[in-house]
UniProtKB/TrEMBL annotation:
Phylogenetic classification of the source organism: Eukaryota, Fungi, Dikarya, Basidiomycota, Agaricomycotina
Name of protein: Phosphoacetylglucosamine mutase
Catalytic residues (UniProt): S68
Span of domain Alpha-D-phosphohexomutase C-terminal: 480-531
Cofactor note: Binds 1 Mg(2+) ion per subunit.
InterPro entries recorded: A-D-PHexomutase_a/b/a-I, A-D-PHexomutase_a/b/a-I/II/III, A-D-PHexomutase_C, A-D-PHexomutase_C_sf, A-D-PHexomutase_CS, AMG1_II, AMG1_III, PAGM
Needed co-factor(s): Mg(2+)
Top-tier EC class: isomerase
PANTHER family reported in the protein's UniProt record: PHOSPHOACETYLGLUCOSAMINE MUTASE
Length: 550
């Protein structure tokens, strides 16, 4: 019976000691905080990833070092399960325990207890593939991770600097290599080839789309989009902006998907590049979120967010299923979160089953798996489409009765190849949007007119302890601090079409407040008044109370 290599773990762990004053938590998207504090966490994640792999009979586990949309000084790490999905929820708690063991001896005890409780067979191989984004702190964090992998003797593969969705793709491709359900070549080239070939088939014979402006958030998406552009050739022209991956402080700064969504503005750096009517889109720092937009004929910024992407894509897929003659057998459903604009939920719910779940891709992903084809998008632009294994089988074996059915069936099959079904993927989603626009001959204007967004506002509030905020009903209501929800309800009633909710962020040390109302000024006012309530209830330094809601 093999045992943990205690001596190796002990001596290497001493080089990566936990800062005694910090507590880490595996949250919405793994561990995420100041990059300079994460050294011990990365070492321990290396050991943990290897144990997870052993627990799953040597299947390859992914580790991604990124803090996605967060500012450059932050960093983070998350684990990817063998099918390319987020780490199974029960292991999030194990990760938190391991990360918080105070000393090396405590760590050894915690690891030993994990191995015994989960009956992990240590004689099994451990295989891990890892990657990082372009953050300056990434390099040293990767070396801490490598020490963890070395300490436990894992077989490790370095996937270099790449996007989060490519790492997810690689994990699935490695674990399905040579199998009937092979996901593709287990290399970046395999990823670009798979996506670009499916895209070319889907747009064949369609009028070529105008060039697309892509804001790369000065992150890793810049190099990935440049490579993808080469594979796409003249099937789609990408004009890449915000590609300064080595300029200090540039990452996600005044650009990128999160900037666009939260400010509802065009990144200032694009002002001279986007002509009225032209399509633009923004990736986030690790290229797993996507926001589209255009300027109308008066030069007004019009945002096409995750909700609008869901509406566009779901309608197209439903149409293709119908044209293929499969409406009775393949049901399409949509998953959203509380952040979905009320108008989008209304639009979608009139046409399809719609489910609301808590924030976090893992929640959306699992809910989407319950549909034959599940379309999930968070309003922030994070999402994808899942085709169930039975649906993929049906598509592969269905005998079309007419040429029109055959064409639609082929489109659906090509969509299963174009879409990165492991996780939200800005580049894959971008190609998906472009396919639908090409098929429908839509510009941004027609797409935008599917429904009119209710004016809305998202505000962050810094509080003493965000963990004091607990929610229920898919985060739409607060159960703690006591009494706050009643005050919010009283306020919301005063606004026509008013809706507001409060939840603690899982990726930043803030509480988020969302509000919508019939008029823009009212949505703003409601958001700031609810934020004021949050601030006052959670206690804090009056001098730091954000000016806008004083
Ligand atoms: C992560 C999650 C998303 C979530 C977002 C914000 O995105 O993967 O599902 O919507 O954080 O979460 P929160 O409001 O809890 O901070 P990303 O793109 O930052 O990895």
């Amino acid at each position: 019976m093999s045992s943990l290599p205690l001596q190796a773990i002990k001596s290497l762990s001493e080089l990566h000691q936990k800062p005694s004053h910090l507590r880490f938590q595996y949250g919405t998207a793994g561990f995420r905080t100041l990059g300079s504090t994460l050294d011990s966490v990365l070492f321990r994640v290396g050991v943990l990833a290897a144990l997870r792999s052993k627990r799953l009979d040597g299947r390859t586990i992914g580790v991604m070092v990124t803090a996605s949309h967060n500012p450059e000084e932050d960093n983070g790490v998350k684990l990817v399960d063998p099918r390319g999905e987020m780490l199974e929820a029960s292991w999030e708690a194990h990760a938190t325990v391991i990360a918080n063991a105070l000393t090396t001896n405590d760590l050894l005890d915690a690891l030993d207890s994990l191995v015994r409780t989960l009956k992990i067979d240590l004689s099994k191989p451990a295989r891990v593939v890892y990657a990082r984004d372009t953050r300056p702190s990434g390099e040293s964090l990767i070396s801490a991770l490598q020490d963890g992998l070395k300490a436990i003797g894992a077989e490790a593969r370095d996937a270099g600097i790449t996007t989060t969705p490519i790492l997810h793709y690689l994990v699935k491709a490695i674990n399905t290599k040579g199998a009937k359900d092979s996901y593709g070549e287990d290399s970046e080239e395999g990823y670009y080839t798979k996506l670009s070939e499916a895209f070319k088939k889907l747009v064949a014979g369609r009028r070529r789309l105008d060039p697309l402006i892509v804001d790369c958030a000065n992150g890793v998406g810049a190099s990935a989009a440049a490579k993808l552009a080469q594979y796409l050739g003249d099937s789609l022209t990408l004009r890449l902006e915000n590609t300064s991956i080595t300029t200090p402080g540039a990452l996600n700064h005044a650009c990128g998907a999160d900037f666009v969504k939260t400010t509802q503005k065009l990144p200032p750096s694009l002002t001279d590049h986007l002509r009225p009517g032209q399509r633009g889109c923004s990736l986030d720092g690790d290229a797993d979120r996507l926001m589209y937009y255009y300027l109308d004929e008066r030069g007004t910024f019009r945002m096409l967010d995750g909700d609008k992407i869901a509406a566009l894509v779901a309608a197209f897929i439903v149409e293709q299923v119908k044209l293929a003659g499969l409406s009775d057998e393949i049901k399409v459903g949509v998953v959203q979160t509380a952040y979905a604009n009320g108008a989008s939920t209304k639009y979608l719910a009139e046409r399809l089953p719609v489910k609301c779940v808590p924030t976090g891709v893992k929640h959306l992903h699992h809910a989407a798996e319950h549909y034959n084809i599940g379309v999930y998008f968070e309003a922030n632009g994070h999402g994808t489409v899942l085709f169930s294994p039975a649906t993929q089988e049906k598509l592969a074996t269905h005998e079309p009765s007419t040429p029109a059915q055959s064409t639609a069936l082929n489109h659906l099959i090509n969509l299963t190849q174009l879409i990165n079904q492991t996780v939200g993927d800005a580049l894959s989603d971008m190609l998906l949007v472009e396919v639908v626009l090409a098929h429908k001959s839509y510009s941004g204007v027609e797409w935008d007119s599917l429904y009119a967004d209710l004016p809305n506002r998202l505000v962050k509030v810094v509080v003493g302890d965000r963990n004091a905020f607990k929610t229920e009903d898919a985060e739409r209501r607060l159960v703690s601090p006591p009494g706050l929800q009643t005050k919010i309800d009283d306020l919301v009633r005063k606004y026509e079409g008013g809706r507001s909710f409060v939840r603690p962020s899982g990726t930043e040390d803030v509480v988020r407040v969302y509000a919508e109302a019939a008029l823009k000024a009212q949505a703003d006012e409601l958001a700031f008044r609810v934020a004021g309530l949050v601030y006052d209830t959670a206690g804090g330094d009056a001098a730091k109370r954000p000016k806008e809601f004083l």
